Amino acid sequence: MNAPSIKIIINNWTLSNQAGANGEKWSIDEKLDAIKSAGFDAFSSGGREPDLKDLLAKYDLRFGGAFDASSQEQFAEKISAVMAIDNGPINCQLADHDTPVEQAVELTTALMEEADRQMAEVHLEMHRDTCTETPEKAYAIAEGVKEASGRYPRINFDFSHPAIVKHLRPQNFAERLFENIPLFQQSTLWHMRPFNGHHCQIPITDGQGGFSPEYQDIRPFICHAFALWLQGPKPNNELWVMPELGPKIGYGLSCFPDIWQDAIVLGNDLRTLWNETLTSVEATENV
Length: 287
What we know:
- This protein is an alpha/beta fold.
- The protein has a single domain, classed as TIM Barrel, CATH 3.20.20.150.
- It has 10 helices and 9 strands.
- A 5-stranded parallel sheet has the order 3-2-1-9-8, with helices on one face. A 4-stranded parallel sheet has the order 4-5-6-7, covered by helices on one side.
- It is globular and about 50 Å long.
């Protein structure tokens, strides 16, 4: 069998508010050109950009869609719209922060059933202001779906959200954030926005050509996560990882370095850490 591989997927959100030569925001063509030129593999969005499928083919990029939903009636259409473009892993932000666990279990079970019907890899994202807002709710939903359907739902772990909810220190990330390792290992999509216990997004670079101290703190956690995934079933023998940095509106701060340049550095380092971890895991397994 071939060695497990990583695909670096860039969120449209990261490339928003980027000025082109004429001062306008980047077109979708310019965004995909930038992603390809940076050496990355895939693009993520809601899939509503004009001519997106043809442009992805032009730049030889894969696509993993994303949508939010609040009712079962929305699932079929939203999944099929993404699958018409490509069959990469799909991200779903489901319901609201005050959605009761019982209702969220019903919604997630129906979401996974519809995903199965369309042979789509839909992931429920762990995210604030959704039904998975707290770790306790997210894991309760996962257990409820397993009880109802006999298996866990796919979860896209954006660990930046529970890390700030729990006010964690870097030395506690691995211990506190991996409450259910098999649930993480069955995912094929991971939103890796670097964080600490106080901020859900931190700068990657220090403005002087190196990593920021905050990013240095989280690199061991990234390696730990990669090792755990590689020690599991490795679905599809491939993990899509998103260096998910938000623009300087909301997640980013005005004092942060250039977000797209930071995303390039992060994406390349994620690939470096993956390769190092893969080598380490394979060496351990061959002992």
